[in-house]
Amino acid sequence: MTPRRTALVTGSTSGIGQGIAEALARAGMNVVLNGFGEPAAIERQRAAIEREHGVAARHVGADMAKPAEIEAMMTRAIDEFGAIDVLVNNAGIQHVAAVDAFPVDRWDAIIAVNLCSAFHTTRLALPAMKTRKWGRIVNIASAHALIASPFKSAYVAAKHGLAGFTKSVALEVAQDGITVNAICPGYVLTPLVQAQIPDQARTRGVSEEEVVQKVMLAGQPTRRFIDIAEVAELAAYLASDAARSITGAMMSIDGGWTAQ
Questions:
Q1: Quick check: pTM over 0.85?
Q2: Is 187 labeled as catalytic in the residue annotation?
């Protein structure tokens, strides 16, 4: 019998990551959760995944800005499950400011969490994937991996970097049974996006409602936020056997934003 596959999803105690972790558990995979939050709430989430889907679920609260904590998380997961068969690099943070007023510490943190963490998890996951001749790496990028917006220099730089990283690694492992892809969502109504609304309003000098309608959704022809479930189901498909010929792809799910 083929052993049950294991997925690790960074930043999965809320938002898109939580939705992806639940979708992968629903597909029959063990899941390793990662992220911050109220401990009792995280434990309820972990226990519910085990109870509802009959899989093993673990939580490791590694700080994705700290390489040593990332390495400890990956070592723990691989020691327990033998491999991380599906790696979803989802953790992300944001800060909105003009580049000449951008705090240096926020720039460094955004690059560390949104880009460098994917390098560390990937380099540590690949050896076991290569041994098994099977693996799926899904990087949650953004429409901002393909196009830019003002006042988001660090985020746009990190996501463009993640797109390039995705393509490069996909070529390296193309003959190892491993695929590497990026999902590029438009605006998904997550805690991260909700937190941006007052920042954007303050930076642009407009109301929060104007930020939603005239800034965030102005570029999405559908004029609606993307649902977390839509991103989660795309990630689950990319993690499946059926997606074995899709690699190095930037999968837009943005309501038509980047089609313009």
A1: yes
A2: no
